[in-house]
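Q: What structure does this chain adopt?
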Amino acid sequence: MLFQTLFKKQKPINIEKNASEKLLVIVNELLNKELPEHQSHHHILFTANVKLDTLKNVLNQHRSRCQLEHKVGQYHMEMYDQIRKQISDLQSLVDCYTELHIDMTHMNHRLLFYYDKINYLYENYLHLRDGTFLSEANPSFWKAIKEDTLEVVRNIL
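A:
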């Protein structure tokens, strides 16, 4: 009996991540891609808020210069729409990041309906991280991951 307990092999424990942990990993990676200057600052929310403030100032500049009868005014209108979408995307990612950190169990309950989609996104993220996908496809891959993640985030928040 003593020898059985001494030489008993430990069974590996597979701890499966739940949906909120998987989504948090993806959102964290997307925020790191969106905010490359985050590495020099040490807090991702501070960096995100600084960038949001900067984007809002630029948005106001473009809004004040929108005149549709001129080509330059049309350019400002296009830039206004692009920056507004960028602000909305970044704000959604920040909101999801904070919500996941505040109450993960409540978020996990809300994410139950999107478990298959989150699991699919997480598996693709792991394949990219492991090097299964080509590195040339990285920008388009991250754009697709971001769009799919934002769709889930906007539905749950």
